[in-house]
Amino acid sequence: MNSPRDEIGSWLDADVQPLPPPPGTFERVSRRARRRKVSRAILAGAGAAVIVTGLAVSPKIASALLNRPAGQGQSSVAAGSTSQAITRPPEPHNNGTPAAKSASHQPGAPASLSGTGSGDPVPGNFRPTSVTFVGPTIGAVIGQAGTPGDCAGGPYCTSLAGTADYGKSWFGVSAPATGAPNGSSGVSQLRFLNTDQGFAFGPELWTTANGGAQWSRTPLPAGVRVTDLETLDGQVFALWARCAGRGPDFASDCTSFSLHTAQVGGPWRRVGGAVSLTAGGTATSASLILVGGTAPVPADATGYVLAPDRRVLSGKLSDSAWTTAGTAPCAPGAARPDGQPSGGLLAAGSGELFLLCTDATTGTQASPQSAGSQVLYASADGGKTWQRLPAVPDLGTPASLAAGAGGLVVVATSEGIEVSRDGGASWRVTLPAAQGPAGGFSYVGMTNTSHGVAVPAHSGLDEIWFSTNGGRSWQPSPVAGDG
C-alpha cells in the first residue's frame, strides 16, 4: 500500500485540476511524521548512552598523584549552568551579578565531561587556574574567560574546558554560575572523581553529577570557605576553614580548619579528630592529600592532613575519625592565593610522604633554617618520623610538590620544574626558566609515572603544560579551540 506521501505526490504530478485529498489524509501524514521524529530521537539517545557508558568506566582520579590544584586546543563553555536545566535562562548569581553563558551554547545540548566533545568552542582569553584528570587522557581545567572576573562586562566569567586526548585538543564543559574568588564568593579550583562527579571550590563549593552539564551550590556555614578538596574511591574530602581574606586571597587570614567528607551524592559530615585545627589563633593554612586505594576497596586508601600546628593527621577513608600520626618538621605557613601552604608542601608516592619546607618558620630546633632556605624530608611510616634528605631543589621558590611510584618526586617553582628519580636524593632541572612560562608554575601533578601536568603561575598565559615522559620534558598546550 502506498504511503500518504506517495498519494500526495501522484496528485501533484498529474496533469489534472487538483482536488482535496480524502478525509483524514493530513492527520495520517502528521501522525507518521511524529513517529519518525520520535524514532530518530530514540536512536540518537541510544548512541549517546553508549558513548557515556564507555567513558564512565574510565579510571578514577588518583588524588594522591594530582595532589594540588591548578587547571588545551579545541572547545569549552563558560559559566551559565545552574542546578536547573540549562535550557532555562541563566539565573542571577546571589550577589546580583548576571550568570555568565557561552556565546554559542545551544539550549538542550548540555556541555559536559561525560559527553566528551559535545560542547562549544573554548571562549577567548581563557585563564586557567586549576586542572583535574580522571584517567590517562580525560581531564578538565577551570578558570576565567572573556573578561576575567567581570561577569557583568561580557558573556563569560568562570569557564571550564575539557580534553579527551591529554591536552592535544579541548571541548566545551559548562561551568558553575559564579565568578572568580572574591572574599567568600567565587571558585578557582576543580576536581573530578570520574567523568560524572565533579567539584568546583575555593572559596564556594559547587557540585555536578552529570559531568558539568548542571552545577549546584552547596550551602556552607557563615564565615566558612573550602580551601582544599580531594577525591578518591567514591568519596570526597575537603577542608572547611574560617577565613577573613578579601579579594582573590580567599584563603588568607584563616584561623581554624575542619575536615569534612561525603560519599558521592550523600550529605557532608565532619571527620572526628580533625576538627577545629588551629595554630593558637594565628592565621595559617592546612593541606590535604589522599593516597592509595583501588575501588571497590576504599578501606585501603589513606588520607593525610598537615595541620596548622604541624601535626600530621591520618586515617583510612572509611574511618569515622582520624588520629595524629606524628609531627611534621615544619608548619604549613601562610596560604598562597590557591589556598595551598607556602611554607610546607606535602606529597605522597612510592610508599612515602614527602615534605618540602621552604621558609624561616620551617626548621626544627635541632636543625634551624635561615630565611628562604629549602629542606626536603621523607617519612616511610606515615608521618610518625621524618628523615632529612641530603639534596634539595634549588630553582626559584617552590610552589607545588608531587610524587609518584618508582621514587619520582617533582617540584614546580617560580622559575621552572625540577625532577628527582631517586626519592629526592638528587635533582635535575627539566624545565628551566628560559624555556618555561614567565613567573614559573603554581601547580604540578603526575597522573602516573609518565604523564604530568603543570599550571603556570600567570594564568593570563592561557596555557597548561604537559609531560608524557615522566617529567623529562614539558610542552605547553593553549586553552583554546581549533582554528
CATH class (first level) name of the largest domain:
Mainly Beta
- The rough form would be described as globular
Amino- and carboxy-terminal Cα gap: 52 Å
Which architecture name of the largest domain does CATH use?
Answer: 7 Propeller
Helix count? 2
**CATH topology heading of the largest domain:** Methylamine Dehydrogenase, Chain H
Fraction of helical residues: under 10%
User: How many strand segments?
Assistant: 30
Structural class: mainly beta
Radius of gyration over C-alpha positions, nearest whole angstrom? 26 Å
Poorly predicted residue ranges: 1-22, 25-109, 360-371
Strand content: 25-35%
The CATH superfamily of the largest domain is known as: YVTN repeat-like/Quinoprotein amine dehydrogenase
Tags for this model:
Methylamine Dehydrogenase, Chain H, mainly beta, 2 domains, 483 residues, 9% helix, 30 strands, disordered N terminus, single chain, six-stranded mixed sheet
